User: What shape does this take?
Amino acid sequence: MFLPFLLTGLLASGTGLDLMFSNEKRTRDYQQAYDASPSEFLASEKTHTEGFIKWHPYTLYGMSALIIVGLALFLFLPTANDRAAGLAIILRGFSILFLDHFSEEHTHRYHAQIMTALERA
Assistant: This one.
């Protein structure tokens, strides 16, 4: 019965570690790109954030559907492992929705700063 939660925890931990190490490299790469050509960097980040902003509704719908699937597993399957899997799926869906909400907020703020910087240039 603990296996679904163990897998959910390992997946979350692995994702967090990957982001921690890749963000450090991306920060250096972004700084180098900005130092090389600020106007090109801002234009590419504008395109990047506009594309990223479009994905937030899909994440909302997809994770909502995943939560419903987890709820159905929990409610309609009889064994403890099946119910634990349903709860683990619900937990994963809510955690992704939680993180995506703050990611969306930061993306909008970052995009607004990019637009302000482009207007000044």
The longest helix spans residues 80-120. The CA atoms of residues 67 and 90 lie 5 Å apart. The chain has a mean pLDDT of 93. The two ends are 58 Å apart (CA to CA).
